[in-house]
Structures are given as C-alpha cells and as structure tokens.
Amino acid sequence: MKSLTEENLEDCLLNKVDLRRQWISQMVEEMQKVVHHLTTEISRQDIRFQAIPYSDTYNENIKVLAPTQFLVTVPVKGLAGYREAQQQRWRYYTLRGARLPCPLRDPERLQQWLEVEQFTKSLWQWHEADVTIEGDIVPAKVLQVFRKLVENAIETCPLSGKVSMLMDSTVVRVAVETSSGQVEAELTPSVEIPTAWSKKAQWPSCLKRWPAPERVQCIKSFGFSLLACSNYHWQLSFLRAEQVLLEQLDEDGGCRRKCFQALRQMKEDVWCPGKRPVLTSHHLQTVLFWTCEKYPDPKDWRVFSKAFLRLVRKLHKCVSQHFLKHYFVRKGNLLQYASPAKLDAVAQKLASFLKDPRISLP
C-alpha cells in the first residue's frame, strides 16, 4: 500500500494506465475487425444500415465503457436534413398496432420522438411499416429489424465461432471472443445529426470560463446522435462532442487527462470492477467535465495528487447521492436507473479511500 502523498504515486498509477492502454488497444483492434465484418454484411442485406470501416487510428463508432464492455454505434443511412419537430402531438399506439385509451408517456429528458417528416430527405424504406408507426420511426421496431440482421450476419460471416448473440429483451448484445478473453458489445443503431445541436442541450451555462467560447462553438458543430435503445423514444447521445472535449483537455499543460486515466484505473481495479459495472468510463468522463468547469484555472491542474483527490471527491458525492447530471442535457440524471445497492457499495469504497488515500492495485 502506498500513500497518496508519496512522490511515486503518479508513476505507480500511470504505469498501470499504460498497461491498460496496450491491452485495450489490442482488444479494440480485434473488435474492429469483427464489427467491420458484421456491419458490412448487415449493410449488404439492408441499405438502411451503414458498414463501419476498419480504422488504424481512433474509431468513433466503438466506445470502451469498461475493459470487457463495449458500445458500438451503427450509423443508419437514408435520413438527411434533420429539423426539430414543429408541433407536439399525443401518441396512442402500441408496438403491435393496437389503440391505447390513454396517450403514451412523454420522452424523458435525455429522450425524444423521431418522425420521418423531420428529415427533408429519406429513403422510401424508412417509410415502411417494419420501422414506423403513424409516421414515427420507432426504436423498438428498428431494433427488431436490426437484431434479425445481426443474427443472419453472424451465421454468414467467416468469424470462426468468435461471435454469439446474448439474450437481451431490450438491446442487441453480442459476445466476442478475443485473444484476451470474452468481451460484450452492445450494437446500437444510431441516427447521426451532424448539422444541428439538440434544443434539449442548453449548454453551456452563462458566465462559465471552461471551455472557452470558441471551443464551445467547435464542439457544437459536431452535432448529436439519436440511439435506438428503448421502445418508443430515441436516446440523445453526444459521443463526438464529448470526444472532442476530451482531446483538447490539457492544452495549458495541466494533468486533467492523467487524473481521468488514474480515476478510471482505480474504478476498474478497486472501486467498481467486474463485467457490466454500475459505473462506466462515461460516468467518470462526465465527472471530469463537471470538475473542469468548476475549476477552470490552469493552476488547479498542476499538482496531480491534489487534482486527483478533487475528482475522487466529486465522484463520491455523485455516487452517494445517486445523481450525476448529464454534462450537456443538464436535467438528465445518468444514474437514474443504476442499482442503488451497487452505488452504495461503490460510495462506501470511495469514502474509505478518501479517509485514507492509499492505493493497492492488483
């Protein structure tokens, strides 16, 4: 066990970070090949879904949530010229086409409806009944079509038994065998909207020094996405904008990225290990963004140990309160559906660490 105030703390944690980077890079490379094969076959079967090309560098469609948990966003084709819905209307349909006596509930803060007419250009296939009801593109129906395509692609592609479907009633999830072991990937159809910024994302707040105004405009220019991961409502996603924000963290010579990497390492090894953890890298990334906004001065990010502890305290507060605001859609709670018992267990570990900041990594 090493005290957080010892000089070699930073080296100790970041050595583990380097090892993790090498390990994850290898798994991502293998995952990319599998995803490319699957999506190429899916796109061949159904023109509405894009093939994800193999990339020697960063692949924006593959997000590492945890060492054995990946999110793969599969862009759709044939929907262009997005515009916000002009008027609100009630929906009375079910997924099977029955009529409800009362309207469906409104989307939550991180969700929205999606109508075919919100696009100025659309393939005729997006008007078909296999994905729409009363003019709405319904995520559950899109997922139903997509799930069948994934099943067919697994049987068709030369993947030598590397990929298998996992039973899940709400999302499309597969198990992939890599040289480092089995990993899980959630494959999610994604409507990319690069030409607009969601009206639900009232960001940034007034009088904030971080990020700089010119940086804000750059980030907003990347738009947002809508993910098919529920029955009736599309989930707002800002993966591209978040990645740009991450890439430009330390232009002032600070240690924000190092602190984030060390926080992630402790989370994965000590505070919240295992498959499908209650906290993912996305939660930690959001904690980092909020802390950067609260402490915009470069001097606050010069001493690693102090900055790292600041992040841990913020994480502990969010986990203890079961509340972590989405960075862009600030009324959304990223921990809304997380297990309270699991959050409390993580909060207890974080509290113990803060009382006696020592590290003991495997």
Brief sketch in words of this structure:
The chain has 362 residues and is of the alpha+beta class. The chain has helices spanning 9-45, 139-156, 213-220, 239-247, 256-271, 281-294, 304-321, 340-355; strands at residues 2-3, 62-66, 69-75, 79-82, 111-112, 119-122, 132-133, 136-137, 163-166, 172-178, 181-193, 224-227, 234-237, 358-359.
Helix-strand sequence: EHEEEEEEEHEEEHEEHHHHHE
Shape: globular
Largest sheet: 8 strands, mixed
Range of strand content: 15-25%
Computed over alpha carbons, the radius of gyration is 21 Å
The CATH architecture assignment of the domain at 20-197 and 225-237 turns out to be 2-Layer Sandwich
Helix count from the secondary structure assignment: 8
Low-confidence stretches: none
Q: Give the averaged pLDDT, no decimals.
A: 92
Count all strands and give the number. Answer: 14
- Tell me the CATH topology of the domain at 20-197 and 225-237: Beta Polymerase, domain 2
Helical residue percent? 25-40%
Q: Could you give the distance between the termini?
A: 11 Å
Protein name: Protein mab-21-like 3 isoform X2
Domain Mab-21-like nucleotidyltransferase: 58-248
Organism: Vicugna pacos
Pfam family, one: Mab-21
